[in-house]
Amino acid sequence: MLGLDIIRNTRVYQEAYAEGEQKAKLETVPRLLKMELTVEQVAEALNLDIEVVQQAVPKQP
Fold this sequence. Notes:
The protein has four helices and no strands. It is mainly α and 61 residues long. The termini are far apart. It has a domain at 27-61. The chain has helices at residues 2-8, 11-34, 39-46, 50-56.
């Protein structure tokens, strides 16, 4: 598994991994809000800034 360790240490891999983590967190925001958590609670649970959570809130038509 030496090859995989080398790949995991690359900047490109690290950036892609971080982007994937952020995307997953943002996709979770609406579900947590439906469970009646506050924006502040969601931000704390997902370790995100409140502003980021507010931007991820789906717009109501």
